[in-house]
Design brief:
Blueprint (H helix, E strand, L loop, with lengths): L2 E4 L6 H9 L2 E6 L3 H10 L4 E3 L8 H5 L6 E4 L17 H6 L6 H12 L3 E6 L7 H10 L5 E6 L10 E6 L13 H5 L19 H9 L5 E7 L2 E8 L15 E2 L9 H7 L12 H9 L4 H14 L4
Parallel strand pairs: 1-2, 1-4, 2-3, 4-5, 9-10
Antiparallel strand pairs: 5-7, 6-7, 8-9
């Protein structure tokens, strides 16, 4: 069985899909405590390193074996237009922003481990440093492809346009996504039988507004580098959801309440048996900042076809 390493494992979205595809997690690297705890509980056979990638040498990972595949999604804050304090010059986002430089650590680890395949996920606005990335990956021995993928085209019930930078082309089958109501309509009742199914609370004033709000309208807005963004959007039940983010919250289409972390996870294609641990905010963040498991599953099936048989 081919093995993989996830260098920014988060709450386990990338890993969950690859495991479902038949790949084996070797090492999962994640510095966040509750994320690491979530990984330990959901993937007990993997080695979970609760460490910062900046302090990790490839030998720390290779002692457990050489992976066929290395994946990871370095933080996007340095690149995303939703960040109002994003550095003006694109190259500074990669080379000077401490969060942007984590991308270079991903490249360092790939260069050291020399996997047969690597896949790095980020927001499309990272393409502003496309030629710098091509140069950096070239320095460690790889030509790269910039695969821009919209998750809803592969059956995920929410919009999520991301770039997957890899040394192979990723060709994924298309599939109709479920609507919001198809994805979460069976768990409207808030009970403890469904994990992570407790919502953040709204003030009484906002709750009253939420009941009256029209579908696709929002209670609040915030400013980013790319303009004004909506938050607390009331989802349309018969369409897919907008992009799920760790910092955003959505209003249930048929009730005057916020979605729960489990409903966010459903809209990201997580199965209910993938349980998030930690405070409520951590649960929302892990669901919203993940690679949708449906997407990584399809990538995993693709990789099994192109990797040499073991």
């Amino acid at each position: 069985m081919h093995t993989f390493v996830d260098l920014f494992a988060g709450g386990g979205g990338f890993t969950r899909g690859l495991v479902a595809a038949g790949l084996k997690p070797l090492v999962l690297l994640e510095k966040g405590h509750w994320e690491a705890e979530t990984l330990r509980k959901n993937f007990p056979s993997a080695v979970v390193m609760e460490r910062d990638i900046r302090d990790v040498h490839s030998e720390d990972i290779l002692r457990y074996g050489k992976p066929s595949i290395v994946v990871g999604g370095p933080p996007c804050e340095a690149y995303t237009a939703a960040n109002a304090s994003r550095m003006k010059e694109p190259h500074m986002r990669l080379y000077e922003d401490p969060r942007g430089r984590l991308t270079l650590h991903f490249i360092r680890m790939v260069g050291d481990m020399q996997p047969e395949v690597f896949i790095m996920e980020n927001v499309p606005s990272i393409l502003a440093v496309k030629e710098f990335l091509r140069y950096e990956f070239g320095r460690v021995g790889y030509e790269v492809h910039f695969n821009v993928i919209e998750a809803s085209e592969q059956g995920v019930p929410s919009q999520r346009r991301r770039v997957f930078i890899s040394n192979i082309r990723l060709r994924l089958p298309r599939e109709r996504p479920p609507t919001v109501l198809e994805a979460i309509g069976d768990i409207m009742e808030l009970d403890e039988s469904t994990p992570n199914h407790k919502p953040s609370s709204l003030t009484k004033k906002l709750e009253e507004k939420a009941w009256k709000l029209r579908w696709n309208s929002s209670l609040t807005k915030f400013k980013g580098a790319g303009g004004i963004y909506k938050s607390h959007i009331k989802l349309h039940p018969f369409r897919i959801a907008p992009t799920i983010m760790g910092s955003s919250r959505f209003i249930h289409p048929l009730e005057g309440r916020l979605l729960t972390p489990r409903e966010h996870a459903r809209l990201m294609s997580f199965p209910d048996y993938h349980v998030f641990y930690g405070p409520l905010e951590s649960q929302y963040n892990m669901a919203g900042e993940a690679v949708p498991p449906r997407l990584s599953y399809l990538m995993g099936r693709n990789l099994i076809k192109v990797l040499p048989a073991e």
